[in-house]
Specification:
It is found in: Cytoplasm. By secondary structure, the protein is α/β, with parallel strands linked by helices. It is built from 15 helices and 21 strands. The chain starts with a strand and ends with a helix.
């Protein structure tokens, strides 16, 4: 069964096409395009009209364009519109209108993607689920996710992000969710907002897109909870650890690679076990539990299925780096280098503090700058030194001008190496971590802490090549 017919695509976009076609998927990248996809020529990083000829040669069913690109036959299967971005939104709106299932939307300063993936794991065993890929949560990612959603979907899970005021509400109004989650409100993108309260107002605007009778779900533990509660409306569910929470999180236990907690809702108690440690993960899972009934899922099955969730690459994945297979020397790596702000940094350090290093090993943090924090950036970096988790961390290596502030705030016995750039740390990685260590890599994406993480991975590769050359 096709996802898009030419007739439906024309009706959705107001465009024109000279031939009939059927598309079985929607693509914005010729590198991952599959035969039968509708190729959407967005102008994001580059003008994708330059790649339409390639897309058609690779078997695209049609291309959504605003002009006939160079090198493309005017008789090719083109859906020509005035503006490709607007047309993509039209596809998303049409796909949402034909959906008979339900939609769950998720936003928050921290934990959007983690909560989305938890929801996917929790609900996919109970119904046909369609969820956003990666972090497709912006002005083109949300309509693309909707445009890819099969009509028979029973639950669509949409992640919604923002960098500036006024971005969330239009995307929520496009998605029209039956339930919407705000995971938390924390200092992030403060350069674009005057205060944390301003961020809360923006996050709360996700509730403006709720369908009639929809449920607003929010973190009731945070200082700005009242802003979220006021916007959530009469069907609100506040989750948190406080006694007054609608869904209460109790007795959170962190183990080396596990989080166990009790959730109480309407007098009913549910036990939840997650396959990674972190108090913040318990809160993310609680928000998914709070959404279960609103999306037509069974809460007990939801709790059971949450155990199947695994952290995605770069967001807390844990792996073993074997340095020497014969001698059994290895490093445990926690890759959380995708992004960072004060709340997510605290959560990652808590996880490192709860983890157990190997024989003779240490807990080591490798940290990059937290960006887009505005005038309070220096204070936020200095405050990391006072976190309780730091007491259990043996050494902190860091890079970037803002992390120099943390480096200077740490006691001498905890100060590792500081460098101007992540590349400098990566070049010296063999002297910074050792067998038995459990190592956290964390920083904003532009801080390139992932370069150091990759250098740790390559320690194993070099060791194997050296061993092969000796034989």
């Amino acid at each position: 069964m096709s996802l898009w017919t030419s007739a439906d695509a024309v009706a959705a976009t107001g465009g024109r096409t000279i031939c009939d076609w059927q598309a079985f998927g929607v693509s914005i990248d010729t590198r991952t395009l599959q035969p039968g996809d509708l190729f959407v020529a967005l102008t994001v990083a580059r003008d994708a009209h330059d790649f339409v000829a390639t897309a058609l040669k690779k078997g695209a069913a049609a291309a959504l364009v605003s002009r006939v690109p160079d090198g493309v036959d005017p008789g090719a299967p083109l859906l020509i519109v005035d503006d490709v971005q607007t047309a993509l939104e039209g596809l998303g709106r049409f796909a949402r209108s034909r959906l008979t299932g339900r939609v769950l939307a998720i936003t928050g300063s921290v934990g959007k993607t983690t909560t989305k993936e938890m929801a996917r794991a929790a609900f996919a065993a109970q119904m046909r689920v369609h969820a956003a890929e990666a972090s497709y949560n912006n002005h083109w990612g949300v309509p693309l996710t909707l445009a890819r959603m099969p009509p028979e979907t029973e639950l669509g899970i949409i992640e919604i992000g923002m960098n500036h005021p006024g971005e969330i509400a239009p995307l929520s109004e496009l998605a029209r969710p039956h339930a919407a989650i705000v995971t938390t409100v924390a200092p992030a993108h403060l350069e674009a907002f005057e205060s944390i309260e301003g961020i809360a107002v923006e996050k709360a605007s996700i509730f403006r897109g709720l369908e009639a009778g929809g449920i607003g779900i929010y973190n009731a533990d945070i200082p700005t909870a009242s802003i979220l509660a006021d916007a959530a409306g009469p069907g609100e569910i506040g989750f948190g650890t406080g006694e007054g929470c609608d869904l209460r999180v109790c007795d959170v236990m962190l183990r080396d690679e596990q989080t166990i907690f009790r959730a109480i809702r309407n007098g009913t108690e549910i036990l939840v076990s997650l396959s990674a440690p972190g108090k913040h993960l318990a809160m993310n899972a609680a928000s998914v539990l709070a959404a279960a009934e609103a999306v037509g899922a069974d809460p007990d099955l939801t709790a059971r299925n949450l155990s199947a969730w695994q952290p995605p690459q770069g967001r807390g994945t844990r792996e073993t780096i074997v340095l020497d297979e014969i001698e059994g020397r290895q490093i445990t790596l926690i890759d959380d280098a995708f992004n960072a702000n004060p709340a997510s940094m605290e959560a990652a350090l808590d996880r490192l503090a709860a983890a157990q290093p190997g024989p003779g090993g240490r807990r080591v943090a490798i940290l990059g700058d937290m960006l887009e924090l505005g005038p309070e950036a220096d204070a936020h970096h200095a405050a990391l030194a006072q976190l309780p988790a730091m007491e259990r961390i043996a050494c902190v290596h860091s890079s970037g001008p803002l992390m120099r502030i943390l480096h200077d705030a740490l006691p001498p016995d905890r100060q590792g190496v500081w460098a101007e750039t992540a590349e400098e740390l990566a070049a010296d990685i063999r002297h910074l971590v050792h067998s038995g260590d459990i190592v956290l890599g964390k920083g904003s994406k532009s801080a390139k802490t992932s370069v150091v993480v990759d250098a740790i991975r390559k320690m194993a590769h070099r060791t194997r090549r050296a061993a092969q050359q000796d034989t």
